[in-house]
Structures are given as structure tokens and as C-alpha cells.
Amino acid sequence: MDCLFTNVRLLDQAASEGLGPATCLRVKAGRIAGIGALTPTPGERVIDGKGDLLMPGLVNGHFHSSVNHMKGRLPGMPLEIFMLYECPELEVLRPTPREAYLRTMLGCIEMLETGTTAVQDDCFFVPEPEPDIIDAVMQAYVDSGIRARLAIDQPIVPELDKLPYLADLVPPALKAELSKPPKVGQPEMRALNRHLIQRWHGAAGGRVQGAVSISAPQRVTPEYFAELDEISRTHDLPFYAHMLETRLQRVFGQERLGDRSLVRYTADLGLLSDRMNIIHAIWIDEADMDLIAASGATVAHNPISNLRLGSGIMPFRALKDRGVNLCLGVDEAIADDAVNMWQVMKTAGMIHSLTDPDWLRWPQAQEVLQAATEGGGRAMRVPGLGHLTHGAPADLILIDLSAVAYLPLNHAPRQLVHCETGASVRLTMVAGEIVAEAGRVTRLDRAGLLAEAAETLGAKRRAVEQAARLMDDRLPHYRAMYLRAMQVPVPMTRRVEG
Questions:
Q1: Is 490 helix (H, G, I), strand (E, B) or coil?
Q2: Which of 37, 130, 211, 376 meets the CB 3.0–4.6 Å disulfide criterion with 61?
Q3: Any domain includes 391
Q4: How many angstroms separate the Cα of 365 from the Cα of each of 80, 312, 342, 362, 454?
């Protein structure tokens, strides 16, 4: 629908309140077609902004939709322990296509109603990826109206190859089990990635697209890593790779990669590029940061997840000083317990004050907003996404400046980052279509979907609890591995030591 927003205010970093004067913005054919003193044309909808803020929609730069139904499921624990219970490759956890659709839709509804207009879903599939489950996830993104990229996050090496010390700590029977490669290997993944790209890349008028993922460099073979890089290059797709999320992963590089970090290892393979989204990047050193900056790669910052799992604090300012593009992400509902980018922005705007006594180097609200909009658009490789410029995608949100969060209006960027919760979002537009208004999605039978999700996904709780019991026997060995790794010196600290 073509429309004209009238009497809206746009972000203006140079203005005292952080907002420019009232203006108009035209949307035509899904893109911004003009800003300024504009008059309505026949056939377009006129939306009175009432002096409220019109801004780019937020981009959830890193997400795993597979656990949207598991909010509050686990207590805080380190990633390597957390993953035992989050995504064990057990038959009891195999979803039906409808379950996959519903759990994906839970995230879509929460994002759209709170002003997130785009998402990068690094989706893992348990016990293994299947075409009909991939299709169900993608269909949810098409139906919801959100802008999305999806990749298949699937390790293809045995569990013992991904972690240090574990082979020395498990009993023989478990060692034999953990030495087996996953059921899905490189040939099967080649076919699944082909299915994803041929069937879904460019769907819904280009709003839904594909991406590729290795999960993490230590979770795949170099040959598969290179194959995915070629797919990424051929189709100009983002390439998702978790790197140095935890201290244990730093130790892994010291012990298993010839004292190389995962960033250095990737660079040595010739696979560090501007298409890569390096996810987390907490336990990186100065040399790693230089490599990332030289490559043009993006770093996806997930501060709430990093706190929830005790992973540490990413070196925000050191990366910004090198010109590295940053985006922000929820990570996943089970490690954030919400799918709300405002909470992510607030945390990103505060946590780094613990790492540097020079307050002038702490992240500014404008930098956090830029990461959640323009930075996310660049990470997604969608030209213009996150910008309010002529020809940019019309992925927009209208914020009610009469809401309590803005009374009185002192400085809009700071109040957006530190006061907003998503409750003030009046309208959400993706590719020129209004997909949420007055706090409710417009394309969907919201009540029916939520009722079905409550019943269908609630019934999965018994299976999830059964899977957890099956993992309990492994916990002592993983804990021993984790504690042993914590005793190994590493050349940095990324935690606040008490």
C-alpha cells in the first residue's frame, strides 16, 4: 500500500532533543519515495503522525528461532553446559511442521508488535534438519510479514571434536557415542542448503531470503566451511559463524588449533570476509580485532544472552575504534527470555560502562541505535535497510511520543535506548505494508495462533523434560571439562571479576 506519513518527526542527532522538525515521508512500492513538504496523491493512504517519531524498524541481527517456546526453561549456566539441555540431538525433540511453524510465529508476533522489522535466523534443527521443517519456518516468516534471512545451523563433526579435554573425561561407552558424527553430513547439508536457496531465497517479493551458517568453525570441517563460503559468494549471502563466545572456546584454540584463535584459524583458511557475521566475538584479542576490521566482517553483539550465560563482555569500543560494523541480536528466547530488541539496546548501552573507567568511551545512545538499525541492515546485506533515505526499504516504526517514556522529551535517542520497552510502538511497517498497528499484528489470526501454540507447544514440555533427564548423566563430565578449561591462562579478561 502506498502511503504518506504526515506530521512526523525524524531522528536528528544534531538537534538538542535528537529530533528534527515535523515533516512528511512518502512510501511507494515498498520503498521510501520522498521526505519533506509533500501533499497527498490520489489512492495513497494518509497517516497522521500526530508529531510522533518515525524511525527505521529494528533489526534482530542474530537469532535462533528453534527455542522460541522455551522462555524461562533453564537457569543461568555456561554455554557449554547450557547447550546440553538447549539442543540435544534426540529423537524425542523432533518437531512436526506445525510445531515448527507455531514456534517461529511466536517470535514473529513478539518482534513485529514491539517494532522489530527484520531478523537473521541462524536456525538449528533437532535432531537434524529436514526440508519440511525448514519449509515450515520459512512459511511462518512469509505469512507474518517480517523481513527475514534464514540459515541452517548444523554442526557436522563429532561432539568430541568441538570441545577441549572432553575425550579424556568421559567413560568409554559415552566416548564412543560422542565420537560418532551427526547423521547429517556434508552431502546431506549440500542438498538442504540447495533446497533452502532454490525454494525460498527471494520469496515474498524478496522480503524473505537465505543465508549460510557453519554454526562455528570448530563444529565443521574445513572442506564444508569452504563450500559454504562459495555458496555465500555466489548468491551474496550473509555467512553466520559463532566465534569466541566463551573463554572455553579461547582455550580450545590454544589446545586444539596450534595456539590460534578461531578468528585466526578462519583467516588462515582464507574464509574471513565482508559477508561474514561473527557472532559474539567476546574472547578476541587485538590481533583478532585487526583481522576482523581488515576483512570488513560484521560482529553481532548479543549482550543479554552473554550475561545470561556468563560468557563475558564484548570489547565494544575497541571494535568501533577499528571501524568494525556492529549489529545487535536477541540470540534466542531461551537465553534472553524475550524477543525484544529494546531490552537488548538498553543492555548494550549500559554493560560496557563496567569495562572502562573513561566514561567518554562508553557506548552512546546514537551508536546503539545505529547498530540496531543501519548496522543490522549492513549485516543482512540489504542495501538501504535501516536508513531513512530515498529508495531505502520502507521498514519503519512509529513511536508514540506522548507515552510516559518520553514525558518530558529530553533527548530522544537516549530515551529510545534507556526508556522504551516496545509498548510505545504505534505502527510497524515492513516493505511498505503495515504489519502491526495499535500493538497487534494485522496479517494474522493472533488469538487463534497463540491459543494453538499454547496447547501444541505446551504439550512438548514432557518431551523437553525427558530430553533433559537423558542429558543429566553427561553433566558431571561437561562440568569437569568446563572447570578444567577455566584453570588454563588466557591472554585477556572479558568478565567483571569480583
A1: coil
A2: 376
A3: no
A4: 32, 21, 12, 10, 37
